[in-house]
Here is the input.
Amino acid sequence: MYDDSIIVFYGDHFGLSKSDTKIDALVSDWLGYEYTYDNMLNIPLIIHIPGTEVNEKVSIAGGQIDLMPTLAYLMGFETLDTIYLGRNLLTAKSGLVPIQTHMIKGSFIKDEVVLEMSRDGIFENSKAWNRYTGEEITDTSPYFKDYVKAKEMVELNTFYLYNDILRRVYVENKDMDAILRQLDGDDQPQTKMQLFYLKSTDEVGLGDFVAYMKQHVDKKVLLSSDDLHALLTHFENTFSGVSGEPGTIKSVDQAVNADYLQIKSRIIPLLDGVTGYTKLEYLGYTDIMVRLKIMDYTSEQIREFIMVNDPYAIALDYTDLKSQSNELLRGETPVFLYGERTEWQEALAKAMGAYGCVDSLMPIN
Here is the structure.
């Protein structure tokens, strides 16, 4: 059997988590240098080919998705008359692997370079290094396009999975234009958005909010918090109908889960600043409004964030909205007036090109 078999050893995922501080310290001590994400994500792929003397090391960055086309090539298939993802690692000239589980979306490994996207959502604050030498790369600007591509690859993957795109194309024979029209519908932002604020620890308030959303089944609302990620995570854990211990097969109450998903689809998180945007996406929120304080960011950082992330809308205070009249208001992303303002300021904001207004905090009743 050994002489007649191609044998593949592949580590499905890492064994020792860097996020565990104890493990991080122990492995760093054993290595004699800092245990990095590069070390952690360096998963072995070893292929034994019978009847040959091939002894070759391939250093192209790849992942599990590349196994099928690589093995097909070794079995003599130059091309494949089927749908497949990934690429043949033995003929690829370059490799780009997006990382999103332990790094922020947009991080990647490309050939000899590892880029770790900054957790504040600002690309220029990211760090990169040579994965062979460990030497830091101080100028990350040449890798911006790779960052955008890595982020788009992850988002395209999510889009295909959550919308069952392959079935729509190959079973229902729909083209992408028809699919996008069906998915997008006529869902345009309302010009006046109701805003609710809840503390992340407010159990009673969260219950009242859920009851309100069940009573107003046609409303989309903005939700803000002192810790939005914690609040929405608690919302999911409490109201999704999913139960079970981590690491086990969980049970789902389908009726409760349907109610939860219906409410979730009508919640637009309102995030203060760009930090934490990707974490909300990981929770499954695709429509996110971002409140920007212009003094916290450069114009280039704002343009870059909007271009890469395509948020649902931007919220600006009146003073900031006036200062950005030649920038954000002329773009495709809707801009909303936020905070206290007079009727005159609201009218002027509309005249300048603001799409709509965020209403004052609404009572839950």
Observations:
- The CA atoms of residues 98 and 108 lie 4 Å apart.
- The longest helix spans residues 144-162.
- The chain has 13 helices and 16 strands.
- The mean pLDDT is 88.
